[in-house]
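Before the break, one more example. Copy the sequence into your notebook; we will annotate it together after we see the structure.
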Amino acid sequence: MEWNTQELNGRFNKSNHLDRKDMIMFPILENLNPTKKKTSNHYWVFNLNIRDRIFEVLDSWRTLDDVDLDINARKIAATIRTMWDHHYHKSHIVLDDFSLVNIDVPKQNNEN
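Here is what the structure looks like once it is written out:
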């Protein structure tokens, strides 16, 4: 996965007061086939659910049983933890014990 580090840092800026939110949703555009950069993209959502103390994955095509989705979701969770520790180290909210869960959403059918 490619990261826009400047954009990500800007979103975690302390002035955004993310530690006052219940949920923070991150839309993810994932390229599923590096040889087809324009035609093999898929959107899914990574949600930091502060209220319920979990990381949530919402994907209309896959679940966390999919190895690639699981790996990418864990990378995102680790990145969010790192960014949170950097920008919100004085916050009473600590993300270390947040688990990663799949949220059951309607699944798309790509068959004709």
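Strands lie at 23-31, 41-49, 54-58, 99-102. The chain has two helices and four strands. Try to locate both features in your own notes.
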